[in-house]
Each structure stands twice: as C-alpha cells, then as structure tokens.
Amino acid sequence: xxxxxxxxxxxxxxxxxxxxxxPREKMLLYGARSLxxxxxxxxxxxxxxxxxxxxxxxRAVLGEMDDGLVSLQEASIEELTRINGVxxxxxxxxxxxxxLGKRLADTPAREKRRFQSSDQVERYxxxxxxxxxxxxxxxxxxxxxxxxxxxETVSVGDLSSSITHPRxxxxxxxxxxxxxxxxxxxxxxxxxxxxxxxxSTTRRLCEAGEILGILVMxxxxxxxxxxxxxxxxxxxx
Length: 237
Prior knowledge:
alpha+beta, DNA polymerase, domain 1, Cytidine Deaminase, domain 2, 42% helix
C-alpha cells in the first residue's frame, strides 16, 4: 500500500461542494455512469466523519491502493481499517461492494427471450395476467431483433379501469433504448373485447410512440383464456 494520504487534503466538505460535484445528486441528475470511481465509493461508504465527508474518505482509500480498484478488490479488513477514517463498518461495506462486482462478473449473461410471432407474445402475457383481479397495464420492451429487454408494470387500476399516461408508458422504453414496445392489459371480467377507451388509448399511445421513434408493435388485451390483438383488429397500422 502507498504512503497514507491526508484526509483533510483529500476533499472539501460536501456542503461546500458545488451541487454537480455531490455524488448522490450527480447520480440522480445524470445517472451512475457519470460518477467517478471515488464518487461511487463515497456512495457505498455512505457517511464520513465530522472532519471529512465520505468523498474525502473514498479518495483517501483509492489513494492508498497501488492499482486503484484492482488493488481494492483484494484488500483486507485490516488493510482498510489502517486508513484514517475507515472503521470496521465502512471497511465491510467497501468489501461487500467489491464482492458483488466480482460475482456479477462471474455471472453468465442471461439469454434473451426472443419473440418471433404474435402468438408467442400473447401466450407470454396470458400466463402472467389471465387470473389477475385488477386491471394491470404492462409494457414489454424489445430490441430490434425481438429480444426481451424487460417487462414493466406501468399502472394498476381498479376492477375496471387503468391509468395510462404516455409519459409513464414510454419512460422505461426511452431509458433502456428499446426499439419497440408491446402493450398488454387484462380485463378482469374475462372478456377481452376492446372497449372504446381501449381503442382511443391505443391510438393516443401510437401517436406518442411515433413522436419518440419507438415502434408500437401491438396492444394485447388478456381475458380468461382468450386474448385480442389490436394490431390484428386493425387498430394499430
């Protein structure tokens, strides 16, 4: 390990820092990728000492490592607690985060489910939604090859209605860079016949998708053992 770095020289107090330099605020505004290694480590540490904030401790910890994060993942509790400001609790937090990173790296990538037909999509939603007693609106996000990115629940209504604002419906698709979406909601009555509201909502969402450049591939209504595709019905062009 390198010669110990002074914590007081490592960083200014967090209250004196510009807002954009505060790790938590920066993550909320710009996402985790905008943070430096020391910013991320500061969030893991959580809170600093009276004299030095977590950002200062994080920089001191990384400054003690011969090879940055590579050395940090091999550090011991004893090595970390020799750094001024790092107690046992902080050391265990840091090593727990390092271990999670190792396990993630060792986890094989999950093979994407791929949808090649409307029948596959309808069966997927039927298994999930046919017995729900409340109206639920789900959005399946897919890539350009029909691979599943995620399936998100946008709203849960009462027994007969669901709130579907375009801002909420497309939020996940925009954030995850989805190529297209498939909407699905259930009719707890068991009858999947589209209502006038279902049709008008679908048209409104298709218009929003066109503006955003996200393809609305279908809207499927799930009943008890039966489903209706609004694309097949000609509602979606």
